[in-house]
Design brief:
single chain, four-stranded antiparallel sheet, 12 strands, 6 helices, globular, alpha+beta, Nucleoside Triphosphate Pyrophosphohydrolase, 31% strand, eight-stranded mixed sheet, 224 residues
């Protein structure tokens, strides 16, 4: 009976537009923040450990969790970065980036969604924001924006920034066994034990996984 109730709750969330208002209301309240972030933090396990000595304040930036409905599922895009020698080369990320002068966190998220994955900002409805998150390796203070778009989006990724677009699923995100753990190699030199989500056979770890875990906890509150 309990499993049936959960399935019904998820289906209700996916099919009733009113729940975007419910989600918006929830995002205005206290958020899990570190309670959601810390369990997904990767841990160095090798003799060589990364060190970060930032001498400047964190740079402001935004990412976007852009919800859309397709085939009775609630989905959101993730991007795979090109391979390069920097900190985040080849990783899976939410669309987003550095704020430009004078931009709000929402301005940045909408601009980046348009530049990275080709979704015009006028088609996007903002629902709310999650907790700010400090990305230690790249010295960014990231503000996650939650939004939705009506209908299936026509993605047009920027080939300089995006190798491919993955479709994350809220159904999969809220499963009890959604979080897995494996050893990965960060920046091609630091072995890490990384809690992560799996999306289209790609490992989603680090800051993106930590942000998604907060969103996961919020969604689970709504559907439970």
């Amino acid at each position: 009976m309990y499993e049936i109730q959960i399935l019904y709750s998820i289906a209700f969330l996916l099919t009733m537009k009113l729940n975007y208002q419910q989600l918006s209301d929830r995002l205005k309240g206290p958020l899990p923040g570190p309670l959601a972030h810390e369990p997904l933090r990767a841990t160095p396990i090798g003799l060589v450990k990364p060190r970060f000595d930032h001498r400047t304040p964190p740079k402001p930036g935004s990412v976007i969790i852009l919800l859309y409905e397709e085939n009775d599922q609630l989905l959101f895009p993730l991007t795979k970065r090109p391979e390069y020698l920097g900190t985040h080369g080849g990783q899976i990320s939410l669309p987003g980036g550095k704020a430009e002068p004078g931009e709000s966190i929402i301005d940045t998220a909408l601009r980046e969604a348009e530049e990275e994955i080709g979704i015009p900002k006028q088609h996007i409805e903002v629902v709310g924001t999650l907790s700010e998150f400090f990305v230690v390796p790249s010295n960014f203070m990231v503000s996650p924006v939650v939004a939705f778009i009506t209908g299936k989006p026509a993605f047009n990724p920027d080939p300089k920034e995006v190798v491919k677009i993955l479709c994350g699923s809220i159904n999969e995100l809220v499963k009890e066994d959604a979080v897995q753990t494996k050893e990965i190699m960060a920046a091609r030199m630091f072995p890490m034990l990384a809690p992560h989500f799996q999306v289209e056979n790609e490992v989603v770890w680090g800051a993106t996984a930590m942000i998604l875990n907060e969103f996961r906890m919020v969604i689970k509150e709504i559907i439970d």
